[in-house]
Amino acid sequence: MTKPAHRPPRPRPPDFRATFISLGWSGVGQHYGASDRVIRRWIDEEGRAELVAARAAHVRALQRQMHQLREQLAQPFLARQVSARTKDCVYG
Fold first, then answer.
1. How far apart are CA 40 and CA 9, in angstroms?
2. CB-CB contact of 42 with 21 (8 Å)
3. What pLDDT does residue 49 have?
4. Sheet strands (E) in the chain
5. pLDDT for 22-59, tens place per residue?
6. Are the CB atoms for 52 and 33 separated by under 8 Å?
7. Which pLDDT score, from 0 to 100, does residue 81 have?
8. How much of the chain, in percent, has pLDDT values that exceed 90?
9. Alpha helices (H) in 1-92, listed in sequence order
10. Between vectors from CA 35 to CA 30 and to CA 40, what angle results, nearest 5°?
11. Where does residue 16 rank: exposed (0-12), middle (13-18), buried (19+ CB within 10 A)?
12. Which among 30, 28, 53, 31 is positioned nearest to 41, based on CA atoms?
């Protein structure tokens, strides 16, 4: 009897690094339809430490952007609240 032929391992996509940095682990799995084992192998092939550090830097940058956006959006709201309060005040 002959052994069944094994499938060759799925190759890492050329845009894997950029996709992982922007989408993260679960996003990459959904994007490529790959199993955790395949993603783990791709991460190791790409260089785990550097890739994880790049993803962390990307997430921090997104958090800074969201914080700045929240501050920008809150300023007009806070100004409206203050002006509404001062209009309601009765000075005697």
1. 12
2. no
3. 97
4. none
5. 999 999 999 999 999 999 999 999 999 999 999 999 99
6. no
7. 59
8. 61
9. 16-32, 36-46, 48-88
10. 105
11. buried
12. 28
pTM: 0.70
Number of neighbours of residue 38 by Cβ within 10 angstroms: 17
Contact between 51 and 21 (Cβ < 8 Å): yes
Residue type, 7: R
| pLDDT over 70 (residue 83) | no
CA distance 19 to 13: 10
* Residue 45 token pair: 């092939």
Half-sphere exposure of 89 (CA within 13 A, CB side): 8
Q: CA separation (Å) from 84 to 10, 74, 88, 90?
A: 62, 15, 6, 12
- Does 92 have pLDDT greater than 50? no
